[in-house]
Amino acid sequence: MTNKLILLRHGQSDWNQKNLFTGWVDVRLTEQGRGEAARAGELLAESGVLPDVLHTSVLSRAIQTANIALDSADRLWIPVRRSWRLNERHYGALQGLDKSETLQKYGEEQFMEWRRSFDTPPPPLDDSSEWSQSDDPRYAGIDGERPRTECLKDVVERLVPYWEGEILPDLNAGKTVLVTAHGNSLRALVKHLDGISDTDIAGLNIPTGMPLVYDINEDGTPAGAGRYLDPEAAAAGAAAVAAQGKH
Ligand SMILES: O=C(O)[C@@H](CO)OP(=O)(O)O
């Protein structure tokens, strides 16, 4: 028996639009992002993939996306769990920097190493930075684990326990699960699900606001490839993410 898992990256955020590294900075959706979230909910309703439970990060852009999508799918009433373990990758000292300026300043190799390598984190963010989360009350309970930077490997390490301990049990209870999260936390989850190598994961980009559906076996493995409900729009969205900073 399999159960349905829906992965949804938040719609376009204010800082996606401004082309800034975001990470744990708590920016909101743009009008376009709210439209993407509403369309994602319509796609769920049209395809009859209706979530029974929602898991989100603790970042507002994922929470807004879930609320808007669930509203347009008429599922606002489902139970919700939130965890920092689904947060975007902490982007360290790059948080708040312009992607094109960073590419120009450090060159393509360093830029891509920071953006897409598996195990090279950017330099850590100083607690005194205006983009630091060191005083953010939503992380009060995780002090020992509060990152100041993360590479994708770190995200896999903090996310997989949540997948195994919280999301998979919901799936195995027969529920259709919606996860609204972020470009890099969803890359980490897709890497884990699809067994993508540390090298090949560099080429995977997740578009904003596009539902990606998996059928999940009881042991947590996918029964086949994940499928975007709107594959053409998803391919165009992923290509746009890949090109960020380069024009
Ligand atoms: O800035 C970020 O936090 C992420 C997602 O928007 O960017 P990137 O795709 O460059 O990893």
UniProtKB/TrEMBL annotation:
An example molecular function term from Gene Ontology annotations: phosphoglycerate mutase activity
The metabolic or biological pathway listed in the UniProt record of this protein is: Carbohydrate degradation; glycolysis; pyruvate from D-glyceraldehyde 3-phosphate: step 3/5
- Binding-site positions, substrate: 9-16, 22-23, 61, 88-91, 99, 115-116, 183-184
Checking Pfam families in the record gives: His_Phos_1
Location of the region described as Disordered in the Swiss-Prot/TrEMBL record:
116-145
Q: Please indicate which superkingdom the organism of origin belongs to.
A: Bacteria
Q: Main EC class of this protein?
A: isomerase
Q: Where is this site: Transition state stabilizer?
A: 182
Q: Where is the composition biased (Basic and acidic residues)?
A: 135-145
Positions annotated as active site in the UniProt record: 10, 88
Whether DNA damage counts among this entry's keywords is no
Q: Which residues form a coiled coil?
A: none
Provide the alphabetized UniProt keywords.
Answer: Gluconeogenesis, Glycolysis, Isomerase
Q: Quote the catalytic activity from the record.
A: (2R)-2-phosphoglycerate = (2R)-3-phosphoglycerate
Asked if the keyword ATP-binding belongs to this entry, the reply reads: no
Annotated EC = 5.4.2.11
Summary of the function given for this chain in its UniProt record: Catalyzes the interconversion of 2-phosphoglycerate and 3-phosphoglycerate.
Identify its protein family.
Belongs to the phosphoglycerate mutase family. BPG-dependent PGAM subfamily.
Q: What is this protein called?
A: 2,3-bisphosphoglycerate-dependent phosphoglycerate mutase
Organism the protein comes from: Leucobacter muris
